Amino acid sequence: MGGTMVGSERQRRGNTRQRIQDLALELFAEQGYAKTSLREIAERLDVTKAALYYHFKTKEEILVSVFEDLIQPIEELIEWGRGRPHTLETKREIIRRYSEALTEIRPLVRFMQENQATVKELRSAEQFRNCILSMRDILIDPDTALVDQIRCVSAAFTLHISLNALNDLPGTDEDKRKAALEVATALVTQAHRGMQAS
After folding, report:
1. Number of independent structural domains in the chain
2. Which domain does 20 fall in, by range?
3. What averages of pLDDT result for each successive group of 10 residues across the chain (198 residues)?
4. What angle do CA 154, 158, 159 make, to 5 degrees?
């Protein structure tokens, strides 16, 4: 999955529709959803408003498409995880892939934090929240002790925290992602061992 993401990221750059999504999301995060106009997005991309309308009629259409496109890899990972046995290897692989998928959606997470009122109105945001809950469910073994279930939930949230909540800590974004992945992997490993001991 790692190689595909890099390839898809490269593909995104050349595609007008995706260039619109990327820039719009950047502007929405920087100056707020309400203050960003379609005209400004078109001007920044150096395309006509008609060219922009060809792809999207409204700002909300852009935002909904961003949510749908960016959470697709997470939905695919959840489907993959549901079909796998609850082994430690599976959980570690889920955590590794989830870390990569979250890195791809960093701008979306930033936007969601800065524009919570707008996000609340979107049906796609509910879809994103459901993804997070499903991710929790594929990591947890319902038969394990509560403390081990919480370790699994904490592993997923550790990866979320690494996206934006660690900005004031030293190191690059990639350093923080790797460190968070190491902590998350340790948590699922500890939870799995706890399950085996009980």
Report:
1. 1
2. 2-197
3. 43 71 88 89 90 90 88 92 90 94 82 78 79 88 88 90 74 86 94 72
4. 125
